[in-house]
């Protein structure tokens, strides 16, 4: 199995530290708002990686954090403890509902970590950095990481040759600067924080975002991790800072493989609320799409390529996914079968594609090769595609029938009534309307009808 490693900037053969056991850390959500489709694309990519590792016979311990202490969560709560607790729990619940709808496999309960549950261990981590000379308490009462003391800073993002602003500090969790500066490990309490603080040996305050991930990942997976995932926007400063503080404490390499997915664009531009192009899974569902339509759209683009979201593109993904569903219903063995078999050649081709840096577009091409292959029986096609779906995650093992939307059923009922009244002009008009919406209607015995979704 080969993966592109952001650290080396090349595709490498993946070898875990411990034989077939893999430690994988996923940067989780900051629970201050509903996840948008750009966030969700990232978790689909993580899920495809997890499923591919499992398909290749690896045993995977996957850890995901919940960032429930952050500048944004505190600002949105207005420093009110009760409101802070309510909103972080509300958005965490909403996030996991979205994962379920997208058929994303969640880490086990014990491997979902929250910053609020790790404050004591975070403080211990920071105190170790102070003792080792990598961190210092500033006049503002906060504790900062000293970049000038960590010689390898910038190796992930390519900032090695950029000048560090010696003595300059930044206390924001999320920032974008031309020149890196010392970043906050522990933030001294400010009146804007209100009731959100912890009394510790570092003073009254709260941890910074970057240190939270290091403390949680190393606690669960050890000082060196096989795989750490995230979006390309996390490379600097977040993941760069994670490397610095983690390796400063342990003296060991923090992560062997850094896997980053590219951005999701909307109509070729960056997603933005101001432009009316900020979408959540709920927005997609309200337009009549299944969350799995979005999953199929995401699978169709390589994780290291930008995904351009358009409603037309989602419609195409919907039609193609529904075609797979109809074909699987057609292929599914009925009653006593001789026993469907996986096509070994197709399975091998599929495995080769997913194992080549998660080439999911190539894997989908193998799916359609199987569909068209006249040498493979229908029942064997069914079994083989179900095996593929262990990675694709389209829920093909659970399908029973294609659900006909209520608006299509209503038009069909109206058309049947028109035919019964011998109003053939109206009947023909309604048939055209049904076809325009992507369905075909066929008249059968007893003045009844049969509806089918048109092929993509």
Summarize the structure.
With 456 residues, this protein is of the alpha/beta class.
Protein model, in words:
This protein is α/β, with parallel strands linked by helices. It has three domains: 8-261, HUPs (Rossmann fold, 3-Layer(aba) Sandwich); 272-398, Isoleucyl-tRNA Synthetase, Domain 1; 406-453. The chain has 14 helices and 18 strands. It has helices at residues 37-55, 71-77, 81-101, 119-131, 209-221, 235-250, 281-286, 291-299, 311-331, 344-354, 360-372, 378-392, 406-420, 424-436; strands at residues 2-5, 10-13, 21-26, 59-66, 112-114, 135-137, 143-145, 169-170, 182-188, 198-200, 203-207, 225-231, 255-261, 264-266, 269-270, 307-309, 439-444, 448-453. The strands form five sheets. Strands 6, 7, 8, 9, 10 and 11 form a six-stranded mixed beta sheet that branches. α1 links the parallel β3 and β4. α2 crosses α3 and α4 packs across α5. The protein is elongated, with a radius of gyration of 26 Å. The relative contact order is 0.11. The mean pLDDT is 93.
List the helices and strands and how they pair.
Blueprint: E1 2-5, E2 10-13, E3 21-26, H1 37-55, E4 59-66, H2 71-77, H3 81-101, E5 112-114, H4 119-131, E6 135-137, E7 143-145, E8 169-170, E9 182-188, E10 198-200, E11 203-207, H5 209-221, E12 225-231, H6 235-250, E13 255-261, E14 264-266, E15 269-270, H7 281-286, H8 291-299, E16 307-309, H9 311-331, H10 344-354, H11 360-372, H12 378-392, H13 406-420, H14 424-436, E17 439-444, E18 448-453
Parallel strand pairs: 3-4, 3-12, 4-5, 8-9, 12-13, 14-16
Antiparallel strand pairs: 1-2, 6-7, 7-9, 9-11, 10-11, 14-15, 17-18
Helix pairs in contact: 2-3, 4-5, 5-6, 8-9, 10-11, 11-12, 13-14
